[in-house]
Amino acid sequence: MGIDAQIDSLEQLATLDAVLKTLVEKLGAQRAEYTALKASHATVETAIAADRASLIEMERTRSELQIDHRNIGQQLDRSRDRIQRSRNERESQAAERELDELRRLQRDRDDELGKMIVLCDQVRNAIADNEFKLLELQEKLSTSEQGTLAQIQALETDVAEKRSGRVAIIARLPSLMGRRYESMHGRGKVPVAHTTDGTCRGCYVQLPPMLFHSLLSRTQFGECPFCHRIIWYTAPVVASALAEVGGEAVDSSTGALS
Q1: Which of 54, 173, 213, 245 could in theory staple to 178 by disulfide, Cβ–Cβ 3.0 to 4.6 A?
Q2: pLDDT > 60? residue 251
Q3: CB-based burial, 151-170: b 16+ in 10 Å, e otherwise
């Protein structure tokens, strides 16, 4: 395979990798969005179940407090009756002490009941809020299952096709060139760049004159000593034409083929 054919394959490969990167990122974002939606739905369901269980316990406690409160009230009535039927000062004082203690207990139960009623109301409100959130999430999930899952499937198909095409292009390259490309690509870098005036269009650093001179014949590839991309010479007229049609070999900010 001549150098021109290799350059064509490398440009196709770098362009395909740029497209693949975008597709994979979009696919990851779609999957993450759908997963987060399902996780939120499960979290809200768990919160509702926990709040309902707590509410049952609180209602039981409130019922027990109400029963205790009624019992104390009955004991208060009996204590008042004993005061009225006291036969001496000693019995009267004992009944008064008992009455004071029962009143204190009744106040405590009133406070506990008041707090429990507030807590029950708070939990009911939390359940109502979460049930509303759950309905919203269910609607989003329903929509997502119709739209997002279809998009995910389409993206997965597109990615698989691009990866298959990538394998075919790699197979056309000499094995050493394919390994060089894959080695740099595996490190998350754009593996190729061109030069028209002695400047690497990947990292925008001036190449050593001897390296640039060796590339002018377009009979061999070089390696940028600064960014280590596979580099070749492209005539200025060709580079200008590529730029005019949006086919600039290397993106000015990332070095990626556009």
Answers
A1: 173
A2: no
A3: ebeebeeebeebeeebeebb
